[in-house]
Amino acid sequence: MHSRRIALCGVTVDVETEHAEFARYLGAQFPASDAPSGAPDIAVRVRWTEGRPGPGPAAVFPGWAAETRIDRHLYAAPGRLLCLRVDDAPQIAIASDVGAAGGPRRFEIRFHFSLGAGGWREALKRALRWRRLPALRRGRLSTLTYYAVYYPIWWQLEARGSAHPLHAAGVALGGRGLLLAGLPGCGKSTLATLFLGAPDAELLADNLVLHDGSQIHGCFEPLLLDAASRAALAARVPLEPVGRRHQYARDAFHAPHRTGGVPLGAAVILARGRETRLERLTSSECARMLLAINEAAKEVRRYHILAATLALVERDALGHLEQRIADLDRLLAGVPCYWLEVREGAPAEATAILRSLVVPAKEAAS
Predict the structure, then answer these.
(1) 205 neighbors 177 (Cβ within 8 angstroms)
(2) Is pLDDT above 70 for 361?
(3) Cβ contact 214:331 at 8 Å
(4) Do 94 and 306 touch, CB atoms closer than 8 A?
(5) Is beta strand 277-281 parallel, antiparallel or unpaired with respect to 164-173?
(6) pLDDT value of position 87
(7) Pair 47, 148: CB distance under 8 Å
């Protein structure tokens, strides 16, 4: 059994797993840090199963009693939920318990690795794809990390009323936050990393940002860089290879980043266009567009599905949705908001515009 303590965004998580490859993945994703001693906020156990699980909650989660059946995949008991098949990630099953008084919140994650068929079809697929099986298994570890680490942390933060996730990149410029939101492929990471190396610029995150209604904070992951991006960035900031390759021939790297929050200076919704152009948005428009992006981007959408499911047994969490909207409106109140289309192949045009957006907000606040 492998154990690792992870401290992220003010939450301490102890992860236990017998799956050696996942333990190595976590070790690279979350390098050793000065995590606090004592009891963690969250205790997570991750179990990896080859093939489909047996029927019923006792087969999937032995020792987790829950007799009330909510639907075909959901079982509940006071303060406890067993989800035998997570919506949008059917290979994952998750159990949650609020824990004993004064103890950590508990999660157990079961990952059922399958090629999508049962019986002889599964065996045939494995025979035909045996050379690819190691790569296919590695490709599931990123999703597993979200359910084992990021989602429990976000749930803990929302339960505390501390923070909410946004699918966005964040950069601190002169102590003011620049929020870059948009759907995957819109250029968030490219623009965020172009600021790195400037004396007044600090990366918060290139994919996931947390906010508490007044500041934005990074929820950092390794940067995924292709060869060209890596070469350009390595000349400006130190990069530490994580040692794994992702899709689209991108390798993972740790880069310097800010761990504390910053007040928001400007919020920008990004898209690609035929020419670089900027359009002003009202704060209300921007807030609703950010909410729509969250639901369209799978990393946050999957969390919201899980959070809504957990709220069925933790009734205090039913107010999270209203709080997300109220805190987002509060974050954007009085902050300049924009829609920015970026001409293909010309990100430098956009960075010049983005830097100018933060300066007036910084001067107005001083």
Answers:
(1) no
(2) no
(3) yes
(4) yes
(5) unpaired
(6) 80
(7) no
Amino acid at residue number 15: V
Give pairs for 331-334: CB < 8 Å, separation 24+: 331/211, 331/213, 331/214, 331/216, 331/264, 332/264, 332/267, 332/283, 332/286, 332/287, 333/283, 334/283
What is the rounded CA–CA span in Å between residue 80 and residue 149?
19
- Please state, as a whole number, how many other Cβ atoms lie within 10 Å of the Cβ of residue 211: 25
Rounded to 5 degrees, φ, ψ at 168 are: -165, 160
Of 93, 83, 145, nearest to 114 by C-alpha is 93
Amino acid 358: pLDDT: 83
H/E stretch holding 71:
strand 68-71
Q: Which residue has the higher pLDDT, 340 or 1?
A: 340
Assigned token pair, 114 = 């399958």
Q: What is the CA radius of gyration of the chain?
A: 21
What gap in Å lies between CA 73 and CA 84, rounded to an integer? Answer: 5
Place of tokens 């570890």: 141
Structural tokens at position 14:
């102890």
Residue 244: pLDDT band with limits 50, 70, 90: confident
Stated pTM of the model: 0.91
Q: What are 102's two structure tokens? A: 């004064």
